[in-house]
Amino acid sequence: MLRRLFAGFALCCAWAASAAVLNVEFKFTPYTGDPAGETVEAVAGTARVFLNEVPVIEQEVRRQTLPVMFEAREIGPAVWLPAASLGAGLRKGDNRLRIEFEPADAALAYAAQLRWAAVTDQVTEHSADGRYSATNQADEGVETKNGSGRLVFERTFGADFATDRPWHHYPPVSALDDADRAAIAALLKARADAFKPPFAGVYTLLQAREGIRVADVRKFKCLDKAYAAGVRVLAPTAKDIEFVTVGQPEVMLQRAGGHLFAPDPKPFERIRGSEMQFCAGVALAAAYPARLAVVRTPQGAWEVVY
User: Fold this and answer.
1) Which domain range does residue 40 map to?
2) How many domains does the chain have?
3) Alpha-carbon distance 45 to 2, whole Å?
C-alpha cells in the first residue's frame, strides 16, 4: 500500500471516478493523552470485532506509546483491519463492521478512534503552496468517542472486491434444533478424528487454507512429530459448543472461555526444534482454529465454510 510520500504534507482527497476499490482498511485505537501532541498512550483491554454480526476476531490491546502522524493527526493503530483479511464472511456489496472495546480498567476515562479508508488501484497526487502529496486512498473518515468502560463503533462499508460465494445466498439460520446440534457435533468429531497418521484428512483441510504450504508440512513431517509427542485434537460435544446465530446463513461455533478443540499445550513442549514446533503449530491452527463457521446446505447437510 502506497501511503503519503512525505510526512506532514497535505493529503489530497480527490478520487478519480474510474478508480477501483481494492480493499477497505480500518484502524482502531483506544487511548489516553492529547492527539495534538506527538504521542498518545494505548489503553489496555480487549477489542472484539464483528462482521455482519458474526464474531470474527478477539484481540488483546496492550498499553504502549503510539505516534500521532501527519496533519490529519492520525494515531498509530492498536488494531489494524484490512477488510479483505476478514475472511469468507465478507460479502460483495454492503457489510457491517462492529468493534466493541472493553478496557482492562473499567473506571478509566479514555478516548477511542476509528479511522477508515478505501484503498484504490490509482494514485492521486496533489501539489499546492510548495507541498506535495500522493496517496492511493480515498473516502477517508474518522470517528472519535470519549467515555469509560465499554465503547462500541459501527460502520457500514461496501466491498465489491469481495468474493461472492454461493452460501452467502443461503437462507439465514435463526434457530437450531437438537438434530442440527447433533449433526454439527458429528461434523466436528470427524474433523478431529482426521488427526491421526497418515493425516490425509488434515492435509485435505490444509489445502483449502490460504498461505499454508502443504508440501512443506508433508516434507517436514511436523504433524507426525506432533502426534508422536502426544499432541491430540479433542472434538467438543454438543453441550460444549456455543452456537452463535445472528440471522445470517453461517452459524459460528465456539467454546465458552476457550478453544473450540481444546488443545493441550504441554505436548508441544516435547516437540524437538523450534522450527518443527512452529510448523506443527501453524498447521494445527489452520486445520483446527479456535472457532469455525458452518452453514446448512440446500440439501440439509452442514458444512464448514471458514
Assistant:
1) 21-163
2) 2
3) 31
